[in-house]
Amino acid sequence: MFDLSILLFIPLITAIGVLFCKNNSQVKWVALSGSTVQLLYCVELLKIYWDQRTAGNTIQMLFQQRISWFKPLNIEYYIGVDGISIAMILLTAFVVFAGILISWKIDKLTKEFFFLLILLSVGAYGFFISLDLFTMFFFLEIAVIPKFLLIGIWGSGKKENSAMKLALMLMGGSALVLIGLLCLYFNTHTVTGQHTFDLLAIANMHIPIEVQRFIFPLMFFGFGVFTAIFPFHTWAPDGHSSAPTAASMFLAGISMKLGGYGCLRVAAYLLPEAAHEYSWIIILVSTIAIIYGAFATLMQTDLKYINAYSSVSHCGFVLFGIGMLNQTSINGAVMQMVSHGIMTALFFGAIGMIYERTHTRMVAQLGGLLKVMPFIITVFVIAGLCSLGLPGFSGFVAEMTVFMGAWQRPEIYNRVATVLACASIVVTAVYILRAVGATGMGPIKNKEFLTFKDATWTERLASVTLISCLLLIGIAPFLLNNLISPDTKIIMDNIARTAILK
Amino acid sequence: MNFDAFILMKSEMSLTLIIFFLLFLKVWDGIKDNTALLYIVNFLLLINLITGLFGNTDGSLFSGMFHTNNTIYLEKNILKLGMFIISLQSFDWLKNHKHLLEFYILILCTLLGMDFMISSNNFLMFFLGLELSSIPLAALANFDLEKRKSSESALKMILSSAFASAIMLFGISILYGVTGTLDFTEMASLLTTSQLSILAFLFVFAGFAFKLSSVPFHLWTADVYEGAPVSVTSYLSVISKGSIIFIFITILLQLFKNYDTIWINVLNISLLLSITIGNLFAMRQENMKRFLAFSSISQMGYIMLALTNGTQTGATAAIFFLLVYTFSNLGAFGVVALLSKETGKENISDLRGFYANNKFASWVMAICLFSLAGIPPTAGFFAKMFLVTAGAEKGNYTVISIAVLNMVVSLYYYLRIIKAIFIDKPDTPLAKLNGSMMMKISFVICISGAIIMGFASNLFEYINTITGK
User: Fold this and answer.
1) Of A79, B29, B66, B386, which shows the fewest CB atoms inside 10 Å?
2) Could you tell me the residue range of the domain that residue A409 belongs to?
3) Given an 8 Å threshold on Cβ–Cβ distance, is A182 in contact with B316?
4) CA dist., res. B213 & res. A451, Å (int)
5) 0.90 surpassed by pTM
6) For residue A72, which of B319, B405, B378 has the smallest C-alpha distance?
7) How many domains, in total, are found in chain B?
8) Which chain A residue's Cα is nearest to B410?
């Protein structure tokens, strides 16, 4: 069998190891080796998981571990993984690996930087493997401190404001989740008469519909804040653009996925009847996010803001897929989470590389960079093409699946929403091509640009790793699809079961 | 003559012994060296702390006036632990203070009073303990002898605490008139829901609210905290508040258990006001001590939230929270004490750029503040979660929602300090502050407590078992 707790111990040990390092280069190497080991371990996890599944193991969650934590309240350290969590864990491992490589040149308070970066990843790994809602909430909140400090200390621009806004809004989101969680907890009943936080047990219970009506909005919008749900998206552009490169990659690549995963695993899975009732609101809000995000991006002149607003739009697809409530669309939502995570990490990575050399992110001041640093601009173009959904990359597959699912809902309301959401892709193409064109092509605007060097080996390694993931999913989407669809089916069955009951 | 009294009252006995020993030292005046005296006192307090952990038996004395059990022992131990940490943190301050021994004699007297108060099962004993624990505190608040603010704070303290005691005493006298007894157990069975006894209850409650400085009886807190020396402020905000909460739990859950619908409503109003107003004022403070005063007002609100549960679940959560609060709040106060001792400054803006030269102290402050704000992986997260969980059991989600959303507000002002320490860049950052070894030991105790306690699920379980009895 496979020990999932090690997924938490490797980064923890790395983080402690970083604290004991003597100089900056040691810090970097320790962090890099820790994240490499973690990445290999995650790949191993995928392999063993796959073997188990092909051998016919149909238990919903594999590699479970259960330790009683706070007995009087029936809180457990309860972990286990299914296909969806494994996809998310792999995403995290890849982004962390690339993030550490990209931050190779950090020389201000290096030790603290890598310590916080790795601590942030512990929260994400823990969140994705938790099967106990309390444990899950614990890991969700761990990330608040590192995010605030990473943006505040190493950020740029009006970083204090952005850091504060981000910390408070995310904390507000988790406060909503907490209220929902408590209400859910006190409406569960086990055989022993105790209440429970056990996710799988709650899924099989019947939570009264009135309670569901109360909890669902709290849960969905609470987790939704993390994934920049409209109208609580305002932390995202400021936070992403003020953060240092690696932190932006983490925020957009992983942290926003915590919200999507929570919406799916907790809100939709545990409260299926309410999900049905409220699905029109989810669709409404996510369609607004998709369209508003896309048009807001058109107006941006800062590369990081462009990607940040486009993230709002792209994460809208995740919620859109969940809101459509059928297996294809939920599959699409999960694929979009993975695809957007990697794509946006690559995008922020490329922007970071450009910014580090030119010290500006304003599109108007850049130009002709393709001649000076071909590798970086190629990476930038690839990320852009993936973002606008070019076939062959993962973005196309994910968005396509979401739309295929959405079209299965024949109601006129859903059709209109689907068409509107589809139309946003055109806008995406406009802003991406404009940004890419203005940055990479054309005459060189500034003589100083000619002195810049192309990517270093760490930057190349990071970009190549992420690009191969994008291509792999784009060319062989069935790999990811086969991994997740048994588990999205379980979620869907739970939703369908209650729909029939009604 | 049997020795029951000595065994059951061992923490009171050992405190009394220490007090007499210190008095003897004072009269003898043989040891001139303050540092040596401090080592002796700290050693004695450590012994005192350790003896509290062993050989605890249940029982009652003086025809039921004084009683003790495992919960009470635990509560006394929490207070002793806090006392020990504060003593370590006052090392630098007292090293050059000419009234060192008087400080310890007075502060240990108040601790003795608190021990009697927690153990009381009779209003007479309770009131005796309460007065013993509050009058010397006013003298302590005046211990920065040359500062005018310190005397001002002492005067405010004595007046407001006398006022609170008077109100409470009035309530107690009505209760005595109604039931004809002062014993908690007897009184609980005799209390009816007549208007007079409810009025008496309200007077007693108001007295407690004064002592806990819950809104609207909080006005004395900030001024007193600001004027008093840092060690006394931390004593007031952790030990003094803690002891009041402990006896408050007993009185609400045992004595007034028939009134639970009334006191839950009163508590709900009081806690919402405390949390909200405490938070709103904390946001505007510049002085660290005033800031911590308002933040402690709001923390007390969260404890009351757990008590609205009305059963031992709430008591468990409150005691566990106070244990964690002892570590986290004292850690934060320790850093303020260090800053105040070395530079004479106490404002948030003085902490700007603190991280540049004081890495360890900055992390102590950060961990303790995050623990107070309830952010994982610190213990404060768990403690606050349990408080909120206990409060939610009755299903009053309006109160819970306001309380939980207030946690976001509180995060704002804690982050303000984190921002000053880690992010702001003044022209001349503070030089390295050299705290004594004792201060460093206290920091280590505080941060390990603020982290480990969250994972000490056995301790939580233990508290749950003993409060259940």
Assistant:
1) B29
2) 6-501
3) no
4) 65
5) yes
6) B319
7) 1
8) A168
